[in-house]
Amino acid sequence: MSESTSTVGPTSASGPVIVLLSGGLDSATVAAIARNQGHDLIALSVRYGQRHACELEAARNVAQALAVREHVWAEIDLRLFGGSALTADIAVPKMGAELGTRSSDAIPITYVPARNTIFLSYALALAEVREASDIYIGVNAVDYSGYPDCRPDFIRAFERMANLATRAAVEGRTLRIHTPLMDLSKTAIIRTGLALGVDYGLTRSCYDPDDRGFACGRCESCRFRLAAFAELGMNDPAPYRESAE
Amino acid sequence: MSESTSTVGPTSASGPVIVLLSGGLDSATVAAIARNQGHDLIALSVRYGQRHACELEAARNVAQALAVREHVWAEIDLRLFGGSALTADIAVPKMGAELGTRSSDAIPITYVPARNTIFLSYALALAEVREASDIYIGVNAVDYSGYPDCRPDFIRAFERMANLATRAAVEGRTLRIHTPLMDLSKTAIIRTGLALGVDYGLTRSCYDPDDRGFACGRCESCRFRLAAFAELGMNDPAPYRESAE
């Protein structure tokens, strides 16, 4: 756990914090970290026309397990903009040629245009009206270096912009965006969450689940997740189609 | 027209540009400026739970008058966040004590949390999928200095963030946010628009219109607008309740 110690230690708590909660493995871990730091949590989940509605159910379950103070749902229609396998009618790439040739610098087809910019903008609005100064988001530059809006320089630029955007900023309340997973491997993320009691059986990460919410086991997100649990010598407690069929 | 000449002169056109179009006086002028520069326009209008639905009709009429190439509608529910007279059930301040004592640094009650941050984030997503490099927005620091997200430093910070946020930015297509009205008085804005043929009778600015879309003539937005037309020795062609009753 050496690489994640700094994100787990308790700090002084003051007022609620906003946590972007997708129902995936990463955001569940971030929420557990924030709670362990002594914060009251306001979870913000976004319905955005993604095909995997089971993520929404997962967000509900994770929020409940973490006893959040409030769970706010925002509905936005990214399908309006098209252009992504997660929101448009384009096949999700599976293990094989498309994924196999992806370099770490390439941007995957599952990228949603300006997604984190939009999500963080909603979190900023919510932080302002709830008088919160802290936003937690589960972005990660290790496995997702291909997503520009998961990188540290993007997050710092958003934070600078946010501190010029709101009444709160003008009145001197500095907004901070916390990314405790930024430099962690998927294995380190899971190890951190397990130490904090996260039930990963409640979380969903698959880009292409079936109607029951069972994961495909083959998309990029499933592969990262399965490899990390394997490295820890554990079975992923979330349901997969292969084991069920 | 000396103070607005630089915003009206034609420049070389290349590809479509995104224009945030509310149906108000300012955004109609911005759209006319962008069109006059030779650009193809993609108008982006946002329904956001504001009470003045006549603005939406105005946006439709202005877009049609300007022969935009595409008019995209985004629906977001800012009521989720409460905290503003424009979206929550709080009375709109009228001429008199509340407005009379407002200093130029105070933030009006009509401020919507993180509104321009959210609108620009949508514009950024649309720009990316339409391969546009330019976003036009009618923010103005003269009459609206009380709104932090109408100020130049906010706009520049958003632009810096946006250029780290998207696939397009990573691939080297620089995004620019244009604010041709930033330093213009309301009178100069109207003069600019009239020179470009804007029909201000189609636009709506009132914070508290009636069911027919007739303006109150007394809110801050109406007062700025009426004073500017008066300074030009003109009648505002938009409908007002007083003149109709």
Poorly predicted runs of chain A are 1-12, 83-107
Distance N to C terminus of chain A: 35 Å
- Mean pLDDT of chain A, to the nearest integer, reads 82
Q: Give the class of chain A from helix and strand content and strand pairing.
A: alpha/beta
CATH superfamily label of chain A: HUPs
- From the 3D coordinates, which CATH architecture of chain A would you assign? 3-Layer(aba) Sandwich
Taking the sheet with the most strands of chain A, its summary is:
5 strands, parallel
Q: What CATH first level of chain A would be assigned?
A: Alpha Beta
* Oligomeric form: homodimer
How many structural domains in the coordinates of chain A? 1
Biggest sheet strand order of chain A reads 3-2-1-4-5
